[in-house]
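ARCHIVE CARD
Drawer: 12
Card no.: 0347
Subject: one protein chain, sequence and derived structure
Cross-reference: see card 0346
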Amino acid sequence: MSDEGQLPPPQGSVDPIAGDGPAAGADEPASPSGVPATSLGTRPTFAPPPPPTPPATGVGGGFVPPADVPPEGPQPGVPGRLRIGSVLGRSIDIYLSKPILFIALALIPSVLSSVLFLVTGVGTTTVIGKVPDPGTIVLWVVIGLAFALVEIVFSLALVVVGDDVRRTGASDAGAAIRRGASRLVPTILSFLAIMVAYLAFAVGLFIVFAIPVLLHAAALGFLVLVAGFAVIVYVLLRWSLGFAAIVLDGAGPIDSLRRSWAMTRGNVLRLLGLGIVAGAVVLPLGVAVGFVSLVSSNQLVTSLLSLVTTAVFTPLGAIILALAYGDLTGRPEVPAPRRTSTGAKWAIAGGIVILGLVGIAVSLPGLGDAYTRIATTAIPAANRGVILFGTGANPRNGCEPTDTRATFTTGDTIYIGGYFSKAVPTGQTATVTILKDGVEAGSAPISHPSEPVICYYEQNPVTGILPGTYRITVTYAGETIAQGEFTVQ
């Protein structure tokens, strides 16, 4: 039977063509002509065409504004997916939005440790060949542990502040420090768990490596080491967000590692890329600061350089951690209070790299003399380049005999030692010459295959020396670097 000339079934009724279900157009809005679609097709509609758009005149209402353009700069991250450029760009924005707060939180641990060293009178400079006394060692350990605990608390506080600014644009330093302190124990336990896991893996790797070596299969052993290193890096990346889980979501020591492992699934290469890119920016400057600290004899300059790098790199690392954790967990986010253009970010990163490379180039020529200066810093000026003679052995430092004097008897036991005015470089040789009454009585070489030499002493005391005047000189490259004289009556 033909459908032509019949009215379509009303909406919601049974269509005889389609069967027992509702008509095809039952749930669809009516067309502009009021004729719904049927199972036989859609009848044409005769809606009036839209009015023409007036041409733009430049003076009236004909101008149509363009659609909104997203603001320049990195956009918030996509939950469950890490974007390297976005994380790095937003890290700079967040840091520049509250630089004083981030710098203060980064520097407080260093300032506190410096105060502790000043108050206790314990220095960090050691002399080669000199063993510190037990009291000094205990103070070093106590101050080191105190500094480590404070450093952990403020590092966690930096992550909290970075997350706060990411989520709300505001921050509370006091609350962040309290939060960091409250999560100190879980953080330490998580760190210990990681260390135990890595230690167990290292032992197993050594055993597996030793087998091919014992079988004279060195190539296979090398492949085992490479594979083991790759596993260590992989696990480190999978656990890299565990500390953020502890301080931001209150996770436990082991649960934080499980959470980090779960949320980093599918993002390992992005995390690796993030670390490589960030490291490529900051590593040259970090190396340059280390070299300059070795080369420069100005303690103020080296301290300032160390503080500057700490004030910049420590907060940025914490912010990157907070952003990566927030992106992968879908935490809420607001635009950074301060937005820096992409060009400015490239300029900042490039400037840091160039500054680091210049610092490395400038400091390289002076590294050769750095060891001498560091090794002799704690040596009294009067003792540099002087050979000493005494009747007592110094168990903590053979270079400084006790009960020093210049006159002895033939029955005395004489201990000999002293410091050089400059170090003898690794693998180079100096010469010790002994003169008796102005005549050379003997000579011997001084060298070390793996480290520079700054001190000389006779391991065994000298006894039964004949009467006379004895002079000992140490020369290197034609220069006298130590000398001393004593008389035996």
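Annotation on reverse: The beta strands are 387-392, 402-404, 407-408, 415-424, 430-436, 439-446, 453-457, 468-476, 479-488. The chain has twelve helices and nine strands.
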